[in-house]
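JOB MANIFEST
job_type = single_chain_structure
chain_count = 1
residues = 416
[input]
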Amino acid sequence: MFDLILNRLRGKRILILGFGREGRSTKAFLQNYLPEALVAVADKNPMEGVQHSGERYLEAVYDYDIVIKTPGISLKDFDAKGVEITSQTDLFLSQFHGQTIGISGTKGKSTTTSLIYHLLKSSGRDAILTGNIGIPCFDIMEQIHEESIVVYELSAHQLEYVHNSPRVGVLLNVFEEHLDHFGTFERYKHAKFNLLRFMGPDDYAVVHDSLMMETLDLGINSVTFSRMDFNIDEEALPILGPHNLLNAKAALCACAAYGVDVRELVPHLYTFKPLEHRLEPVGTFGGVTFVNDSISTIPQAAIAACQTLQKVDFLLLGGFDRDIDYTPLVDYMKEQTVPHLLFTGKAGERMMAMMNGISAQKVRYDSMEEAFDYLRKHAKSGNVCLLSPAASSYDQYKNFEERGRKFKQLAQSFHQ
């Protein structure tokens, strides 16, 4: 059933590197389809089912024939030379390349992935959603039939060790991000372009205009979604802002590249339900309108949010510092008027120092509750408060979803 995957693994000593959601998915697949295989698991944290743990757990890779690495494990400071490293994504694409639309980008990939899935399902296609959106690809393989179209959200972490590309690859944008994992922007960007690097003559790349020159260097078929005009009614789009119009164009281009008639898809754009934590209107409470954009982990995302809303009175910034360049956000704030800028975490400290010359009220806060205490003292009816941190959440929260939920909880009980 999955001959290309199983033939690559059969007869080899296999190490699963990382035992989170994807690692457990890989182990279940191997137990089901290669029960005779010698399989072990390495993870820094000792837990049931893990044979190699502790500070030196990475050294286990030398003792196995092939390593199936999970996305969260960084090898930037580890010498893995001579080790055969693959991943769920690489193995999956070797088997299902011809049925897969893969979507990546620093920002917008979850929205675009969900939108492509929505367009295909709404038009009667057998679409299957997987990937970084929270569904390991090994978990959906038994659902795939001859007519199925797999819509696969791909992070740079998932693309880092791939040698296969999808039939249609959508690369939305590439900005500085995840430097804690990759070490350099060049390594991060190289991983992103792995989405397209291994395409054949029948495959198609859908990219933003800013990435076209590098795409052309790969010698593959490509189209620029940012230049397309599909007569989209922007006011009827349920996703807000110029960046989401680009995401809609990218989704339509991806479907067209797969062979679907775009004319039948455009009406379905207007029935899409936006994802949580992405310029999500929380509501107006105590006279103040709150917008949750917790997904914002880079300066370009915060800029796009401000541009979309046009009026922002309180902007919550900062969090975990990944050493990305905040100059674009600083330059934007020099030209725009946001009366109150609130900063948290190491990233917030750095932003605040860089914005020293900007004429806004700049406030440091340690908890979301503190930020809302400041709002109660200074906000007026008609004000807009935006959470668009331009930084990761991992210093205080499990993920951006938890941060967004905290913001919404406090917003919904806000009163002056």
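[summary]
The longest strand covers residues 280-285.
The chain has a mean pLDDT of 96.
exit_status = 0
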